[in-house]
């Protein structure tokens, strides 16, 4: 019988496992992951941005955790030899209305304790010759990393300290009893734990129901779709380029991301999925969306770029 079983081998599950075995070094701890390796779902399919905490309500847990997480992520990378690029984020205003919103964002970043720099149109053009805007806010603490590599490093630390990772173990049933929980997998495995910790991402509501409980929420999965610029355009921007967000919208808008592998992506869309397992399936026709993205601040760099579409 295990003292702890963690379900989910993304960055949340692996970070939990790594820290749990540090606190309880003599405990028997296992992590179950349905795929053949770590970070195969949300963790391995995001843009890899190390966020600074620009957008969150001052004093909120999100604001506090994002600032602390930014520093902790970079420290972990330094300690474990993981490459990251502290390239900074440029928030670009392209209209008088966005300039007003940018001033509000400027005050919010100050309240959140984030280092930033106000740029006028000329200063913006000097930093980013291929981006057109009326002004911008530069946030130097934003960066980029491969969260697959971060998660893999956490997995190694966990295993080196005596933790057990069981891949190809898709949970199919959970049965709670007075001394713990029995976990069964689609592959025929059976595991028993005194304490069960679910870090199961998009499947979290389903695992709650396996215990005969009502989660009180339903996960509605979305898939983000991107263009990747042709390699000859990898130097087109010097920083992460974001628009000034519309406060009435739940998303940050289309942005240019310098990936850790040197490529540049443009996106993303938000595509609702009726089937959570379709999260990494073939893309929709992104070419039809490109003309809607090639606008305002991106106009200076969209005429000559050919990009390949792909999904996260």
CATH architecture of the largest domain: 2-Layer Sandwich
What's the CATH topology name of the largest domain?
D-Amino Acid Oxidase, Chain A, domain 2
CATH superfamily of the largest domain: D-Amino Acid Oxidase, subunit A, domain 2
Note the total helix count.
8
Compressed to H and E, one letter per element, the order equals EHEEHEEHEHEEHEEEEHEEEEEEHHE
The amount of helix comes to: 25-40%
Note poorly predicted spans: 299-304
Q: Between the first and last Cα atoms, what is the distance in angstroms?
A: 37 Å
Number of strands: 19
Rough outline: elongated
Q: Pairing-aware structural class of the strands and helices?
A: alpha+beta
| Number of structural units classed as domains | 2
What is the typical, i.e. mean, pLDDT?
90
Sheet having the most strands: 6 strands, mixed
- Which CATH class of the largest domain applies here? Alpha Beta
> What is the radius of gyration?
22 Å
Order of strands, widest sheet: 9-2-1-12-11-10
């Amino acid at each position: 019988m295990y003292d702890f079983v963690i379900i989910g081998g993304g960055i949340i599950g692996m970070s939990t496992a790594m820290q749990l075995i540090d606190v309880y070094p003599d405990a028997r701890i296992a992590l179950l992951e349905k795929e053949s390796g770590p970070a195969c779902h949300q963790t391995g399919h995001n843009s890899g941005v190390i966020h600074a905490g620009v957008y969150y309500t001052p004093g909120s847990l999100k604001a506090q955790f994002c600032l602390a997480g930014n520093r902790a992520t970079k420290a972990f990378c330094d300690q474990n030899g993981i490459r990251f690029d502290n390239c900074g984020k440029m928030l670009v205003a392209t209209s008088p209305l966005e300039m007003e919103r940018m001033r509000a964002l400027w005050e919010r970043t100050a309240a959140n304790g984030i280092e930033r720099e106000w740029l006028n149109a000329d200063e913006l053009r000097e930093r980013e010759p291929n981006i057109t805007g009326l002004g911008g806010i530069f946030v130097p603490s934003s960066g980029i990393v491969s969260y697959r590599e971060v998660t893999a490093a956490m997995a190694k630390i966990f295993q080196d300290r005596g933790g057990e990772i069981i891949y190809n173990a898709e949970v199919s049933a959970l049965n709670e009893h007075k001394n713990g929980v029995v976990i069964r997998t689609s592959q025929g495995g059976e595991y028993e734990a005194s304490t069960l910790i679910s870090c199961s991402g998009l499947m979290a509501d389903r695992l709650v129901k396996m215990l005969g409980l009502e989660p009180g929420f339903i996960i509605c999965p979305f898939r983000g779709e991107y263009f990747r610029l042709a390699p000859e355009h990898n130097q087109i921007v010097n920083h992460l380029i974001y628009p000034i967000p519309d406060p009435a919208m739940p998303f940050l808008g289309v942005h240019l991301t310098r990936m850790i592998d040197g490529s540049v992506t443009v996106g993303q869309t938000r595509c609702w999925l009726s089937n959570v397992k379709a999260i990494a399936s073939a893309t929709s026709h992104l070419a039809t969306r490109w003309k809607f993205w090639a606008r305002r601040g991106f106009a200076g760099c969209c005429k000559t770029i050919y990009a390949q579409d792909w999904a996260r």
